[in-house]
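Friendly challenge for the regulars: who can give me the structure tokens for this chain first? No prize, just bragging rights.
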Amino acid sequence: MRRLFEVAIVAQGLHCLEHVAQVYQHLVFHQSDPQGFLGRWFNREWIHFGFNVLLGVALLVLFVGCRMDEPAWRRYSPLGWGAFVGALLIEDGLHVPEHVVRLSQYLRYGWNPAPGILGHTAFHGTGPFNLFVLHTVYNFVVTGLIVAAYLAFRPRAAAAS
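First reply, four minutes later:
Bragging rights claimed.
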């Protein structure tokens, strides 16, 4: 399970770089449809939907597989447990549903980028947040929480005798 935790951190870190590239292209170069690094070769809606569903599943597998519902996890590291549950709730409760709605908007209307629930783009959506900034914030918060949980759950060194 430790390897899955580490793979999730590395993959999510790389995903954050993709979002930084999109925000930079949007805010600095004023592109209404920033592609990031991968947008030229892959459909943005499908790749982000797939990645976020996989990350959400990985977090659920870690939670269930490590039996993090047991009180021992909260006793061992309340901070680590809270950070992990926070990442799980934000990813599976906010971020994945955003991508489900975005993908449905893309499939139904052909919008790419699609605004989702809370986002807006130059052409679509009435959400309160800039789409590209919103998803960058989601990703950095989730990444920070996963890293905090990973560090908090590291085995503690035995007390010096």
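The mean pLDDT is 92. The first helix runs from residue 2 to 27. Your move, everyone else.
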